[in-house]
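Question (not urgent): is this output format expected?
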Amino acid sequence: MKTEKKRMLAGELYLANDEELRRDSRRSRQLTRLFNQTTEEQIDYRKQLLKELFEKTGEELYIEPPFRCDYGCHISVGENFFANFDCIILDVGKVVIGNNVMFAPRVGIYTAGHPIDAEVRIRGLEFGTAVTIGDNVWIGANAVINPGVTIGNNVVIGSGSVVTKDIPDNVVAAGNPCRVLREINESDKQYWTQLEAAYHDEKANP
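Got this back:
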């Protein structure tokens, strides 16, 4: 017989008032409380708490407090992950984030869902659908990532976007609902590489 947690992670209907899930939630609340009470002098301790909270991390990660999540143990982040203030991740479903991903302030990832039918919903049944974010992704401030979404590699998501459908690799996307605006191409690389070179020239020759 499946546990409520197994049902939850399989994307099936489940009840959250289960002892195993309550235990995982209490652990998450404790670790996030400790994390959010840290000071800027406690960078190593912050990293230690995040590594304990998450299912998997890279060696380098940084989250600016405050941070909130449901369980934490269903979140995996790759190398060089950064999230700015007020990040929220509701990890009822798995959340898998790749390498070199940056979140601006108030990015929210929401895997949790509730039945459309009110009578079923008020009886407490809910479900979760996983979210996946690829490598080299930048997500702008106040963006909302909805359940079941996959965001590809080398993507920029504009601020205030509500992402309801999958986003392919190598694009700029924005809006509510979020849609692809254009591809990221060689001219982007040339433009930003030239600016980077000018920056280093100025630093070398003040």
